[in-house]
Amino acid sequence: MKYVRQFLWILLFSFAGELLKYWIPLPVPASIYGLLLLLLALLTGIVHLEMVKETARFLIEIMPLMFIPAAVELLESWGALKGILIQISITTLVSTVLVMGVSGRVTQHLLWRRRRSAS
Predict the structure, then answer these.
(1) How far is CA 23 from CA 9, 20, 38, in A?
(2) What are the DSSP E strand ranges found in the chain?
(3) 28-81 residue pLDDT tens
(4) Within 13 Å of residue 10, how many CA atoms lie on the same side as its CB?
């Protein structure tokens, strides 16, 4: 029952993100709105980490499985993508390197802050 309750919390914030997507005419995915709302709820203490921790960990573990339908759709759309393959490859490469670089810098900064506060 604990996992169902945790999943319902996550679904509640996902639904709230869908509502925000409907109300706010910005090109932001509803999932981003939901994640930001959940982050704010966690930071303000409205939702405690224990209320979503195990289910969130499980969802992160199975995340690669969620990319299979998108990959199959890409394979089916090969004819439309063939003409812009170079642009897609360059964009993918640049965005991957940027995400890796920013993630590394953020991780280094957080580790530095943790070491500094520990001493």
Answers:
(1) 21, 5, 18
(2) none
(3) 999 999 999 999 999 999 999 999 999 999 999 999 898 888 888 888 888 888
(4) 19
